[in-house]
Specification:
- It is a single chain.
- By secondary structure, the chain is α+β, with helices and mostly antiparallel strands.
- The chain has 2 domains: about 10-225, no CATH class; about 240-385, Reverse transcriptase/Diguanylate cyclase domain (Alpha-Beta Plaits, 2-Layer Sandwich).
- The protein is built from 14 helices and 5 strands.
- The protein has helices at about 5, 10-25, 25-35, 40-80, 90-110, 110-130, 140-160, 160-185, 190-230, 240-255, 270-280, 280-295, 320-340, 360-375; strands at about 260-270, 300-305, 310-315, 345-350, 380-385.
- Strands 2-3-1-4-5 form a 5-stranded mixed beta sheet, with helices on both faces.
- Strand 4, helix 14 and strand 5 form a beta-alpha-beta unit.
- Helix 6 packs parallel to helix 8, helix 7 packs antiparallel against helix 8 and helix 12 (about 280-295) packs antiparallel against helix 13 (about 320-340).
- The chain is elongated, with a radius of gyration of 31 Å.
- The relative contact order is 0.08.
- Residues about 1-5 and about 385-399 have low confidence and may be disordered.
- This is diguanylate cyclase.
- It catalyses: 2 GTP = 3',3'-c-di-GMP + 2 diphosphate.
- Pfam families: GGDEF.
- Its EC number is 2.7.7.65.
- One of its GO terms (molecular function) is diguanylate cyclase activity.
Length: about 400
């Protein structure tokens, strides 16, 4: 075993190394997408949203610094400490104040397109008033250009979405082209100026690629830790702790808005007999089969979990009693088809929420309905009798 293989390195060291090699081996992914295309849709949306919110304060501060640059330069022009470039000290200070106002708005606004538009406007204003002299004004602006170019390097490191990244690059390039078009070849020659511009963009994109790479891996590590703590490793649905974390807030929100809520217990009949006859491996396969059936139906309204050995609970929100019964029957039928050779069935207990009822009381009623199903011969669905019935769902419904 090599020294490198024998060392246990933290995930962030591996992330840095992989990000470096990705920049060389898959430049399109690194430079254009920042590695976000390695995630599926929901994960990518989560990572993008998290990064946007995490970088929002720093992003606003950088834009605000651009406004302060303009205000300070305008003040220096008013004092005669630096030559102007044709806009006048007062107008330069006013432009700086506008950019600072945009920075404050960026911190508060939620619309991504409006924030992007204001960002591009702010960068255009800073670029023009700081580094593009008015026609006919012959002022050496190299130091002012350098001051302006500090901003895109920092902003590119903070930007997340590819569209925003390349639009910012376009603004920086357009400002540079306008400067050359109005005042000719800059000192040092056009090619050196172009190299300077490319270096600015490249540095910003390198920082952006590394930040995105670390954000993606941090998300994966966090998701892995969450799964380890909240997901049942055997069946793939939530465990009891995870179900409490997810279902309690969902239940409370539904109760607060008086939306229909049902709780269902599924219990595998004669599960001990399966273990005794076929072995624990076959018993695990039975539990996995039920886990797959429930997990396939999981969405914002349906939250299943394994809460005991062969016992599963499901929270259903915004579903009528007819829909809940249909859900239970479909789960029972599909499970029976999947494990037909094992000869096992499901007993089901259902409780629909009563007005003002707490979750633990509704769970107790669902558990009671489950025991009624067990006593009445198993392989059946029982609805707690204290729940209001609408011509259906009475005790004795079977799968």
């Amino acid at each position: 075993m090599s020294g490198r293989e024998s060392r246990h390195e933290p995930w962030w060291v591996d992330t840095g190394r992989r990000t470096f090699w990705t920049s060389l081996q898959a430049p399109r992914r690194f430079w254009l997408k920042g590695g976000l295309d390695t995630l599926d849709g929901p994960a990518r949306d989560t990572v993008v949203t998290a990064q946007v919110e995490a970088t929002r304060p720093a992003f606003s501060v950088v834009i605000g610094i651009g406004g302060l640059f303009l205000m300070v330069v305008g003040a220096m022009e008013a004092m005669g400490a630096t030559p102007g470039i044709g806009y006048g000290a007062a107008l330069t200070v006013l432009a700086g104040l506008c950019v600072v106002a945009i920075a404050v708005a960026l911190w508060r606004l939620q619309s991504w397109y409006l924030r992007l538009t204001l960002t591009l406007v702010a960068m255009g204003m800073v670029g023009m008033f700081l580094s593009v002299p008015m026609p006919g004004v012959d002022t050496y602006v190299l130091a002012r250009i350098g001051l302006f170019n500090l901003l895109p390097i920092t902003l590119l490191a903070l930007l997340v979405r590819p569209m925003a990244t390349w639009l910012l690059v376009a603004v920086v390039v357009l400002v540079s082209i306008l400067r050359v078009a109005l005042h000719g070849t800059p000192p040092g020659g056009l090619w050196l100026h172009a190299l300077y511009l490319v270096a600015i963009v490249a540095l910003g994109l390198v920082l952006r690629g590394y930040r995105t790479g670390f954000a993606i891996d941090a998300y994966r590590v966090r998701q892995q830790l969450w799964d380890q703590a909240n997901v049942d490793a055997l069946t793939g649905v939530l465990n009891r702790a995870g179900w409490n974390r997810v279902s309690v807030p969902l239940y409370q929100d539904a109760a607060a808005t008086d939306r229909p809520t049902s709780l269902v217990y599924f219990d595998v009949d004669h599960f001990k007999q399966v273990n005794d006859t076929w072995g624990h491996e076959r018993g695990d396969e039975v539990l996995q089969a039920l886990g797959r059936v429930l997990h396939a139906r999981q969405d914002d309204r349906i939250r299943p979990a394994r809460v005991g050995g062969e016992e599963f609970a499901v929270l259903l929100v915004d579903m009528t009693e007819e829909e809940v019964m249909g859900f239970c029957r479909r789960v029972c039928d599909e499970f029976a088809q999947t494990v037909d050779a094992a000869g096992v069935t499901l007993s089901v207990g259902v409780a629909h929420r009563l007005p003002g009822e707490a979750m633990h009381m509704q769970l107790k009623r669902a558990d009671g309905a489950l025991y009624v199903a067990k006593r009445r011969g198993r392989n059946r669905i029982e609805v707690d009798g204290s729940a209001p019935a609408a011509g259906h769902g009475t005790a004795g419904d079977t799968a």
